[in-house]
């Protein structure tokens, strides 16, 4: 085989691939241009005043506002119960704290254990992220 003929064959194949890719790109552009006017014409037909006066949209808006208010009230109740923070409780408060919430993570720790200090650090970081769960710790001694 002659190296020049191999080189010319490879460059011919490469040129063919480039031309095919260019043709595909051009075809995509043409299709996109054809679809664009139809979409903009549809958008122009929609009247903004109709959207603002639509009773279904107003109903959806009112439902969403009510749901958001309910969620804010729920967060306030949970915050009053001690959610969103990692705190230490006494042995006497344990039963009331645990039964007062649906989800509770309790760390029974020992002051001198290094692993307990590491766990404290991680639970302190998780408490604000998982607001629906109460994070507490109690001295195991």
Give a structural overview.
This is Thioredoxin domain-containing protein PLP3A. The chain has 141 residues and is α/β, with parallel strands linked by helices. It has a domain at 79-139: Glutaredoxin (3-Layer(aba) Sandwich). The chain is 66% helix and 12% strand. The protein has 5 helices and 3 strands; from the N terminus they run H-H-H-E-H-E-H-E. The protein has helices at residues 3-45, 48-52, 55-80, 94-99, 114-126, and strands at residues 86-88, 103-109, 133-139. The chain starts with a helix and ends with a strand. The relative contact order is 0.09.
DSSP strand count: 3
If you compute it from the alpha carbons, what radius of gyration comes out, rounded to the nearest whole angstrom? 33 Å
State the share of residues found in helices, binned by percent. 55-70%
Sheet with the most strands, sense and barrel status: 3 strands, parallel
Mean of all residue-level pLDDT scores: 80
- The string of secondary-structure elements, in order, is HHHEHEHE
| The CATH homologous superfamily of the domain at 79-139 | Glutaredoxin
InterPro entries: Thioredoxin-like_sf
Organism: Ananas comosus
Protein name: Thioredoxin domain-containing protein PLP3A
